[in-house]
Amino acid sequence: MAKITVPTVAEMARGTMTRQYIDQRTREWSRKVVKKARIRLHVSGRDRVPPDGVFVYMSNHQSHMDIPVLYCTMPSTTVRMVAKTELFHIPVWGRALRAAEFIEVDRANHAQAIASLERAADQIAGGVSVWIAPEGSRSKTGAIGKLKKGGFHLAKRAGVPIVPIAISGTLQVLAPGTISMSYDVPVFVDIGEPIDVTSRSVDELSSEVRVFLENNVRNQP
User: Fold this and answer.
1) CATH code, 2-216
2) Element containing residue 8 per DSSP (H, E)
3) β-strand 162-168 against 186-191: which pairing, if any?
4) DSSP E strands: which ranges in 8-125?
5) Quick one: DSSP state of residue 195?
6) CA angle 56, 150, 221 (to 5 degrees)
7) Is 163 left (phi over 0), alpha (psi -120 to 50) or beta?
8) Tens of pLDDT along 84-133?
9) Which residues on adjacent β-strands are paired with residue 42?
10) Residue 21: its pLDDT value, please?
11) Domain residue ranges of the chain, discontinuous segments joined by +
12) 86 class by beta-carbon count within 10 Å (0-12 exposed, 13-18 middle, 19+ buried)
C-alpha cells in the first residue's frame, strides 16, 4: 500500500496529481501485486467491453486480492472503486483514496450512503467507470451472497451499462480474515456482456447479474 499511497500524497501536496497519473499508478501497483503473488491469471471476455466506454462494473467479492486482479483486467482505462468508510479513516491512506476519487460509503449511515452514490453518479458523468461489489463484503466460502441494490440504482441513475465480472480463485490466494498468502494459484476472471439498464428494473438487473455470477464463478460450495 505504501508504494502507491506515498507517491499519491506527494503528488497531491505538489498539486500535480491528475486522473491519468492515478490510472497509471493504480494499474502499475496492481500488476506488481499480481506478479509478486505469482497469480496465474486467466481472463476471458475482455473483447466484449469497449475500452473507451464508461460502465458500472460489478463482481463477486472473495478476497482483498480482488482489487489488484480487477485493475489488471477491467477494460476501461479510468476506474474508481466504492470502498467502505473504515478505509478512509486510515491516516495518509484515507487522504490518498479521497484525492484519487475513490468513493467512500458508510453502510451504517443510509443518508451518507445515498450521498456517496450521488457523487459516484457525478463521477460517471465525468467519464469515470465505477466498480462495486454488490454483495457488500467478502464471501468466506465462495458462495454468492445477497446482492445489495445500491449499485443497481447507481447504474440506472447514471444511465450506463453494467458489466458483470466473475472472479474465481482469489479466495485461495488470500482468504478473508487471514494474512497468509498462497502462491501460484490460478485465478479466473470472466467478463460478461454489458447489460443495458434502460429497459430493466433494479430487481431485473440484480437477478441478471446474480445469474451471471452463479453460472461463472467456479468452485462454489
Assistant:
1) 3.40.1130.10
2) helix 2-14
3) antiparallel
4) 40-44, 56-59, 79-84, 103-105
5) B
6) 85
7) beta
8) 776 666 655 566 677 677 887 776 777 777 788 888 899 999 999 999 99
9) 188
10) 83
11) 2-216
12) exposed
